[in-house]
Amino acid sequence: MKLPLAALLFTLMATSGRAVEIGGGLAWVALTGGDRVHGTNDRLRFAPRLGPGATLTFFEHRRLWIEVSSAASFVPASMRAADGTHAHGGRAIIGPLTAAVLVPLQASRDLQVFAGAGVLYMVIRRSVFPIDVGDLNVTRLEQPDHLAVLLEGGARYRLLNRWALVTDVKYGPALSTVEVHARQSPHKTLQANVHPLILGTNLAWRF
Fold it and tell me: Which of 12, 67, 98, 142 can bridge 57 by disulfide, Cβ–Cβ 3.0-4.6 Å?
């Protein structure tokens, strides 16, 4: 993933005839949805957490932007069995990568609202799951092998000539998945469905 992404960013920066904006700040990452592990009666729950976030925006035209972003949150997780039993102690780094085409909708002198759509790839790293409850003894989580649809909206407030404060909301309306590995199914990967939700605030600099 890293080499194709780096090549894409380099190509966009080399061919873009417009300004480029880089931003950094905080991102609140949540994995919402039914989160039931398929084939079981257990539910996998993630606690939303803040973490660092970054964006890179290419202003291709006055009415078209291309944005790529990343975030990383160290997220606690738990399991709930059908009988109501809870088990805590799981954790993982959830790092959604997104790419979206954005369109500015409304602008005043300093405030600009935008919206768009794109794709999301949910990276899961360093998952630790000593969880044993209900039907499963979960050992680790992994990221899905597919992209998810992304919707995005937000606002950009100009602070100075090259500086802006950007807030946005990113949401996966179609179900994405978390791959669940358990001792009960060593040769079969289970899945839990989630809807990623990311709230971000960045201080951005245009060059």
Answer: 67
